Amino acid sequence: MAKSPKDKDDIRDILETHYEKVNLTDEMQTSYLDYAMSVIMGRALPDVRDGLKPVHRRVLYAMSELGNTYRSPYKKSARVVGDVIGKYHPHGDAAAYETIVRMAQDFSMRYCTVDGQGNFGSVDGDSPAAQRYTEVRMTRIASDMLAGIDQETVDFVPNYDASEVEPTVLPTRVPTLLINGSAGIAVGMATNVPPHNIVEAINACLLVLDRPDCTIDEIMELLPAPDFPTGGIIYGLGGIREAYRTGRGKAIIRAKTEIEEIEGTDREAIIVKEIPYQVNKSQMLEKIAQLGSEKKIEGISFVRDESDKDGIRGVIELKRGANTEVVLNNLYKITELESSFGINLVALVDGQPKLLNIKEIIEAFINHRWEVTTRAALFQLKTARSKIYLLEGQAVALANIDEFIEVIKTSANGAEAEERLLSRSWPSALVGELISRTKLEPKYFRPEGEDLTKGLQSDGTYYLTSAQAKNILQLRLQTLTGLEHERIEKDYAELAEEIHQLVTLLNNRDLMQQKIAADLREVQESYGDARRSEIVADAKDFKTKDLIPLREMVVTMTDTGYIKSQASAEYRAQKRGGQGRKATEVKEGDIISKLFVATTHDVLLCFTDKGRMFWLNVWDLPEGSSNSKGRPIVNLLELNDEKVSVVLPISDEDFQKDLYVFMATANGTVKKTPISDFKNQRKAGIIAVNLVEGDYLIGAAITDGVHDVMLFNDEGKAVRFAEEDVRSMGRTATGVRGMRLEGDSKVIAMLVAQEDDVTVLTVTENGYGKRTPINDYTRHGRGTKGMISIQTSERNGKVVSALLVNDNDEIILLNSAGKLVRTRVNEIRVMGRNTQGVRLISMDQGVTVIGVERVTENDDGAAEDETKQLEAEAVAEEKEKQEEIQKRDDEIIAGEIIEEIDDEEKKDE
Description:
Belongs to the type II topoisomerase GyrA/ParC subunit family. One of its GO terms (biological process) is DNA topological change. It catalyses: ATP-dependent breakage, passage and rejoining of double-stranded DNA. The longest helix is centred in the last third of the chain and has 48 residues, at 861-908. This protein has 5 domains: 31-199, Topoisomerase II, domain 5 (Alpha-Beta Complex); 256-336, Gyrase A, domain 2, CATH 3.30.1360; 371-507, Topoisomerase, domain 3 (Orthogonal Bundle), CATH 1.10.268; 549-618 and 631-858, DNA gyrase/topoisomerase IV, subunit A, C-terminal (Neuraminidase, 6 Propeller); 863-892. By secondary structure, the chain is α+β, with helices and mostly antiparallel strands. Strands 23, 24, 42, 43 and 45 form a 5-stranded mixed beta sheet that branches. A 4-stranded mixed beta sheet has the order 14-9-8-20.
C-alpha cells in the first residue's frame, strides 16, 4: 500500500519528481515551430523533386504495392483507402478518399494519376459517390512515376509505426510538379503551382539538361504559360513571366466563348465553351443570370446550361440591339468568366520550404533524374555482377561434372560438400575462355566484398567462393546436361555486355545525360498532347473602350436620381424663343436636375453633395429614348444618403498630365487638388473635399494651375481671381475662401477662364439671359463680394447658371417640366454686365429653367441627316401653326365685318 504524504515537504518532493519547470514562452515557441514544420513537411507542401505531397505519394505507393496498376483490374476505392491509412497515412479515411478523387478528376488534374470508375464529381461541384461504390487503379503515367522504385533508386524510411517502409520520394520520370502543379496552405506560407503541358515542360527540361547556363527567357520560349485542364484563354503573359522569374505572379484566365445568331431572330447569344480553372460552372451561370435580371449587366435576356457528355455549353442569350462585345467584356469584368490564378512557386528543397523560379524547379527535377538514373545503373550493375559471378561457378561445375558429383556423393552433408568444393582449385578452360571474350578486367565481375584472390588463377584453374558453392549444390541435375553449356555461354556474354555498358555509362557523363534525355523523350512521346489553354500574349493592351464607338452623348439625371444617355444629334436646333422638345420621361413630382455632354469614351468623376467622388464610365450608362426614365444611379454607384451634385467628364490620358481638380462649394469655398490623387479607382468612392456643416459642392473643373477662376452667385454677382492664389491641397482638405457672400446667397456656378474671345452666358430661372465678353469681368483678389454679372429682378428671377460659350456653339436649356430646347449661341445678344438680358426659352406658368449646357457641333453625317430631317419636321409644324393662326385671324376679321354690317343696319332702322 502506497504511503500518503504527511506534510508539505513530501508533496513538494513528489511534484519535483514528476514535473519539470519550463519557461512558457520558450515552450510555446518550440511547440509552434515543431507543429509548423510538421504541417509544412508532412501535409501542405510538395517535394520539388517528384512534385507530390506525402498523401499523394503514399496513395500511389500503396496502389503499386497492392498491384493496382493500369494493367490490372479496378479495385474498390475503400480497399485502397484502407491500405493508405492503415499502412502509411495515419489520418482520416475521408481525407485520403478526397485525395484519390481529385487525382481522378480530369477537370482538376492536367494528367490524371488515378483511373476512376464511377461517380467522381463534376465541374458543377457535384460530390463524388461514396468510396464503397467507386473503383480505381493507377494510370499509365502514374506507373512511370514509380518506375525503378524497386532498384534502390530512392531512400525508404519506416512508416508511422515502423511496421512498414515507405519511399521518401518517388523516382519519377515525369516532371510532375510542372505538369500537374500543386496547391496547399501551410503555416505562414502557401504554394500554388499551375499545371503545364507535358510537351512544353519536357522541352524546357531538355533545354536545361543540354544547356545548364540557359536563361529564364529562353526557357519561357519553350514553356510560355500554364496549360489548365479546363482550357480557357490565358489573357496576357505579364504576370506569368513575373512568376517564372521571381516565383510569384498572376495568370489571368478567361472562358473561351463563341458568338452565335439565335435562329429565327435578329438576336445573338454568347456560347461558353470552356471555363477558367477551378471555377464552378453551375454557380457561374447562375450568377450571370442573377446579374442580368438585376440589370447590373445590361443586355442579357436568358441564361441556360446545355452542357452534356460532349463538353461544356453555356448559352447566354442577349436582347435585341445589345452590343455583344460590350456585354461579353462586362461579363469578363464582373463574373467568373474571367478569373485569376495566383502563382506561388513554393516547394520543399532538401526538406526546407523555398520560393523558386521556374529554372530552379526544372534544375531540381533534372538533378533528381541524375541521381535516380545513377542509382538505377549501380543497382543493375550489382545485380548483373551477382548473376555473372554465379554463372562462372556453374561453368566450373559443368567442366568438372563427374568430380563434382563424386564429391557430393561421398560427403556426409551439405556443409562437408561445400568445404570440399572450396578446398581445391578446379580446372576450367571454359571460364577462362568466357572471361577472355569480355572487354573488362575480371574485377568488374566480382560482387562487392568478395575475395579477389578467389576465382580464375594464372594457371587456368578456378577457386570457388562460398556463394558459388552453395549455388552449385542447389542446382537440379538437369542443369548439368550438355545443353546448359550453350545457355551459360549465351547468358555470360549478355551479362558481360550489360556490365560493360553500365560501367561505361557510370564513367561517362555525356552518356548519362543522353540516357536521361532519352527517358524524357520517351515520356514526351507517350503522353504528349496539344495545349488546351489558348494564349493571348498582348491582352494587357486591350481596353473596354476600344469596343465602344465614339459618340457624343447628352446625359440627363433627374432630381430623384434617374440617369441615362442619349445621342446629342437627337436634339435639333431651334430659333430663339421656341418651345423645345421633350428630353426625358419623368415620374410625377420629379424634375430633371442635371444635364451634361460627354463622349462614350469618357470617365465621369461623380462628386456628391457631401464631398465624395465616384468613377463612372459613360458607356456603362443606360442609353434610352426621350420616353424612358433611365436607371437609378444608386444601382451604378454605392451612394450613402447623398446626391451627385457635380459630374466631370475626363479621359484616361488626363490622369497622366500635370493637372488639377478645382472645386467650389455653395458657401464660396474653393480648393484645388492634383488630378493624380483621383487616379486609383475604388468602388466605395473617395473623399474629394472636406465640407463644413451645411455646405455642399456646386462645381468642379480640370485646370492646369495658371488660369483665372470665376465664381457666380444666385444674386447676379461674380468674382474673378487667379488660380495661382489657391495653393494645391490634399483630397481631405477643406479649402480657402473664394467668394464672400451676403445673407442666404449661394454660389451657383464656377468657370475657368481660358480664352479672351469667349463670352459668358448668364441664364436666370425665368428663362432670360445674355452673353457678356469675358474681358468685362476684371480680375480681383479672391474672397471679395464680386461685381455685377446680370441684373436680377422680378422678371428675371435668380441666376441659375453661367457658362463660357463661343459663337459657333449651341446650348441646351432644360426646364422643370422636363422639356428641352437647343439653341445656337450666335442668336443670343451680347450685352454688358449691368443689363437684364433677353428671353431664351418660352415656358408655361410656374415652370422654371433648371439647367443649361453647351453642345459642340457634331460632324457625323448620319447625325446631320437626322438633324435636317428633324428641322424639316419643325418647319412643317411651324407652317401648320401659321396656317392655323391665319385661319383664326380670317375668322376674326370676318366676324368684325359682320358686326359692322349689323351696326349699319341698326342705324338705318
